[in-house]
Every structure is written in C-alpha cells, then in structure tokens.
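Narrative of activities, Objective 1.

The group set out to show that a structural description can be obtained from nothing but a protein's sequence at a throughput compatible with the screening campaign. Below is one input-output pair from the validation batch, recorded exactly as produced.
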Amino acid sequence: MPAPVISLPSGAQQETVDFLRRLSSMLTGGRNAEMLMAAADMIETLGRRATTAEQLYQEQQEDHARNLELREVAELASDNLLAEVDSLKAEIDVLKAQLEERSGQLEEHGRQLDERNRQAEIDRNWFAEETLRAQAQAEQAEEKLSALHAEVDELRKPPPPEAIDESIAVVPVEQLKLARTQFDYLAKTFASSGDVVSMTICEIGARALDKALAGGEAGLAPK
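Output recorded for this entry:
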C-alpha cells in the first residue's frame, strides 16, 4: 500500500529548504554538508512532484465529476430515446393496423365493384336480348296487322251489283261478327298468358271489325 502523500505548506517547505542550505553552507564541507544539501534538493524536488500530483489529482477529480455528469445526461437521454422509440413503435403498430383495415376495405370494395360490373354486363346482355326479342315481336305484329288490314279491306269491299240479294248480304255481316268474337277471345287469351303484343294486335283487329260492321250496317240501312 503506498504511503499517503502529505504536502507541507509552500512557505514552511521553502523555509526548511533554506534552513538546510544555510546549515550546509556553515559547515566546512564534508559528508554532512553534502547530505544536508542533498536533503534540501530532495525536499524541493519532492515538493514540486507533490504539487504536480495534487494538480493532477484535482484535474482527475474534476474529469471524474464531469464524466459522472455526462453519464447522467447520457442515461437520461437514453431513457428518453427508449421512451420515444416505444412510442414510435406503438404508433407504427396503430398505423399498420389501420393500413391493414384500409387494405381489406379496398379489397372488399374491389370485389363489390367487380360484382357490380359483372351484374351490369349481365343486365346489358339481357336488355339487348329483350330488345331484339321486342323488335322481332314488333315486326311480327306489323306483319299480322298488315294481314288483318288487308283482310278487313277485303271484307269491306261491296259485292258486285248482280250478286246482291238478302241472303248474300247477311252472310258477310255474320262472318264479321264471328271474326269480332274470335278477336275478343284471342285478346283475352293473350292477356292471360302475358303476350301483350298479340293482345294489342287482336284489339286493333277487333276495332277494325267494329268499324267495318258499322259501315256495313249503315250501307244496309233502309232508305
């Protein structure tokens, strides 16, 4: 264990050195004078070394204190950084959860949009088919209506003068009435089956026969 260093006051140390040197000078030489001078030099050297050691120790103490302060500051900063990192991790977890939820919503919206597009395509195809079917039925209705108009016009033509008598005049009227009844029956049948086009054609034919019957009865009325 090293011996503790006890530093003398600078004034007392210098007085001791001066005393030893004066005592050495009063001697007439010899071994004692040399030992006194060597002791004075050693005391002066040790004093300087002690002063230097004290300064170094003081500086080390100051460095140690600064290091402690820096360590405390570093530990506090480390704790703050760790707390901030934990907070950022929590925010990242929340953002990830929100992102996953939003991604799921977008996927569901995409599926719904695809389903709507498929349904829209099905509806367009259905409407196109229905349009073609309606056009075909309209063309058939026009053909039937033209045939009925031709038949009505044929029935409305008066017989030649030489063929007119009471028996011949009654037959076309009865035929027109029978056709009128048939049109009513067919119109009801088509209405019950949902065939609106055919029902409309029969109603048009019935009205045309009504006009023909009205014209025929007017022509046969007595003058």
